[in-house]
Design brief:
The protein is mostly helical. The protein has one domain. The chain is globular and about 40 Å long. The N and C termini lie far apart (42 Å).
Length: 77
């Protein structure tokens, strides 16, 4: 698989300058945006399911709250 210069530079910066903990928080933020958005939820669910340490109750609660936020954002437009 051939990588572009941008992808190579981005990967190098992410691995050398950003800690593992910050990367995890960024991943949770992206997952939250995907679940709260009007896009299909499966994308966010698949990303969240890839993390083994998420409990079922926490996942259900977070998904419910993010759906409510997404609905209120759409109604506010």
């Amino acid at each position: 698989m051939e990588r572009t210069k941008f992808a190579t530079h981005f990967t190098r910066v992410m691995n050398s300058h950003i800690s593992h903990k910050i990367k995890a928080y960024m991943l949770y933020g992206v997952i939250g945006l995907l679940i709260a958005s009007p896009l299909p939820d499966e994308i966010g669910v698949v990303l969240l399911a890839g993390l083994n340490h998420v409990k079922q109750k926490i996942f259900a609660t977070a998904s419910f709250i993010l759906h409510i936020i997404g609905i209120f954002l759409l109604l506010g437009i």
